Structure formats: C-alpha cells, structure tokens
TrEMBL record:
Official protein name in the record: Multimeric flavodoxin WrbA
UniProt cross-references to InterPro entries, sorted A to Z: Flavodoxin/NO_synth, Flavodoxin_CS, Flavoprotein-like_sf, FMN_Rdtase-like_dom
One Pfam family matching this protein: FMN_red
PROSITE patterns: FLAVODOXIN, FLAVODOXIN_LIKE
Origin organism lineage: Bacteria, Pseudomonadati, Acidobacteriota, Terriglobia, Terriglobales
Residue span, Flavodoxin-like domain: 4-162
GO MF annotations in UniProt: electron transfer activity; FMN binding; NAD(P)H dehydrogenase (quinone) activity
Organism: Granulicella arctica
UniProt cross-references to SUPFAM superfamilies, sorted A to Z: Flavoproteins
GO cellular component: membrane
Cofactor: FMN
Length: 225
C-alpha cells in the first residue's frame, strides 16, 4: 500500500477545503492511502517548527502534498517554519529524496500572487530531492462559455490554485474538483513508481475539455434548480 500525506496550513478553513478534496482524490485510487496533517500555530516554538512526531510520520510516506494559504504574495509564515525545519536533519540525510511531491494554495484575490507560493513549495520539494507533480488539466474559464465551475479555471499547472471570496467559506466547486483531480493524479503516479502499476494517460483536446466543462456547468445548474 502506497502512503501519501497532505500537509497543510489553513487560516480560516478555505485551504483546508482544498486539502480535504486532495485527500479525497488520493483515497479514490486503489492501493493508495492518504492522511491529513495540519500545521498549527502551537507547533511553532520560539519561531521554529517543533513537531517531530509529524516529521517522523512524513518520513514514512511515499509522497507529500504541500499546501498553505497565500498571505501577502507568499507562503504563510507558519508553513514556512515547517518547511525550514526539514533542513536538519532531513535535507542533510536526503530522507525525502525521490518521494513524490505536489502543492496547492488559496487566496481571496483572483491572482493574489499565488504562483509565488507554488514556486516556493516546488523549490523546497526539489531541494529535498523530491519528484514534483503538477496539474495536468487544460485551462478553464478562459472563453465566453466558461464558468467558475470549470476545472483549472485559474489556469495553474505548477500546482492547484483556489480562490475563495473573503465573505464566503470555501473556494469554487471548480477549484475544489481540480484539487481532487490533482490528488488522484499524485496517487496514480506514486503507485506507478512504487509498485510499477501501469495506467492509461487521460488526454483531452481543448474542444473536448470545454465540452466537459459545459456539461459540468449544466449539471451544477440542474442541482440548484
């Protein structure tokens, strides 16, 4: 059984919604088990992350999906403290080398400079010797027939992006489902590398992808009627 961890920090619950969705995607793949690990403020002592139990659990996983809120165009301070704690001894001993990695983030703004956060997460993973997996979906919501319910509506491939209005409690359904698909992709690739399990790659043309998103929009509209 391949084991994956979803490690996240969430200020008001928006990023946790994406973490839950990624976990759902991971656990939808046979032969893969996922677990959630939340980075909390009480884990920080004198400015340093101090939860060795959590770090040891990550040592025993085959892959780690990293996620946090984007604050002021950057990964949150709490999450950066967690990342920096991996330097000693895990970076020195290459404990996470060849583990699968992926990332996600959320902000209230449509842009919010979220790409900077994803770059931080991916650079961390690569410095740790991990293998980064990005989003594979074509861009949604980039034409007159698009909608917030589209998959990959924010057009991000480095990692999954979510946007949640400041006065609402979760990102759009399109962002949530994109995160779920990333979780499933990470799980499939992890199992392929760990167990040598072959899989068939899903490929869609842009017209086909748009057709699927229109069907999603219509189905969601039907649920609201």
């Amino acid at each position: 059984m391949a084991k994956l961890a979803v490690v996240f920090q969430s200020g008001k619950g928006h990023t946790k919604t994406l973490a839950d969705s990624i976990l759902k995607g991971i656990n939808s793949v046979e032969g893969v088990s996922g677990s959630l690990f939340e980075i909390r403020g009480q884990d920080i002592q004198e400015g340093r992350f101090a939860n060795e139990g959590l770090m040891s659990a990550l040592d025993n996983c085959d892959g780690i999906v990293l996620g946090c809120a984007t604050y002021m165009g950057s990964a949150s301070a709490i999450f950066k403290a967690f990342l920096e704690s991996a330097f000693q001894p895990r970076w020195f001993e290459q404990r996470w080398k060849d583990k699968i990695a992926a990332g996600f983030t959320n902000s209230a703004s449509q842009n919010g400079d979220k790409l900077t956060t994803l770059f931080q997460l991916s650079i961390f993973a690569m410095q740790m010797g991990m293998i980064w997996v990005g989003v594979s979906d074509l861009p949604g919501n980039n034409w007159s027939g698009g909608a917030r319910s589209d998959l990959n509506r924010l057009g991000s491939w480095v990692g999954a992006m979510g946007q949640s209005n400041a006065d609402e409690d979760k990102p759009s359904i399109g962002d949530i489902d994109t995160a779920e698909r990333l979780g499933a992709r990470v799980a499939v690739i992890t199992r392929r590398i760990k167990d040598g399990v072959a899989y068939e790659t899903e490929r869609l043309s842009e017209p086909g992808f748009r057709k699927n998103n229109i069907a999603r929009k219509d189905a969601l509209a039907g649920l609201r009627d």
